[in-house]
Amino acid sequence: MKSFSIGSLAGMLGSLAGMGGGFVMIPMMTASRGLRLTQHQAHGTSLFAVGSTGLFGALAYGIKTGEDANNSNSTDMETPQQQGLVKLDIAVALTATAMITARFGAIASSKLSERSLKRALGAFMLFVAPLVPGKKYLDDWLAGKDSKDKQIQIQIEAGAVQKQSNLERLLPASFIGTFSGFLSGMFGVGGGAIVVPALVLSTDTPHHAALGTSLCAMVLPAIIGVLTHAKKGNVAWRVAPSLALGSAIGAYIGGKEIGLHLEEDVLRGGFGVLMLVLGGRTWRSAR
Prior knowledge:
Radius of gyration: 19 Å
Shape: globular
């Protein structure tokens, strides 16, 4: 029951931030009042649930097919609840490189001591904490940049939308996947802490679409990470199924019923505070 509850909470919070929920799961799984797993077991086992969070979170946000992705007119008129938000082509580009580096991240994780791994996770959580709330300022900057781009675009060709080539759109995503995959395998997380801000900065992906696309892209790398951790005995199979089931339910409810209806500032601020608190606790407990 504990593992199901932890998975449900982590899945819900993860889907609201475009992450796998590993940041929430791991401190609870290693706590004395939690599942009492070792640090290495927590990292490997959380990836089992991260894949579940990614899959059902992406389904909640909806898959955007090729025609929908290229039809900007329909996208502008529809609400987030009416349209698919997951950009499948970008998710595939992220996944392609992340699947390769996830294995190396899992191998690197097994070579660190319990203390070093916990401190590294805590430091990374503290680093991530201001990134998601800070995206508000990034969005404001991008909005001004987009308005200038639109004016130039109208002058070039009236009534037509200038499209980026596939290479221009997918190459940044592939580069982002390289880093997110390694972090996913090493820390037992989905990598969304890197993917979501990076997608908004380097592509034309809106915030809600970045959340859904990030969730979709973490599924296969998480599976690769689980298999690598399992070979080293770092997956607690007794709790993994219930953890994944809870994550699936929490992620779908979080994305479908909450994520699409909450203001972005609320989502960002809440997750930033959560990361700050959990990161601080994880860092202190490693001393």
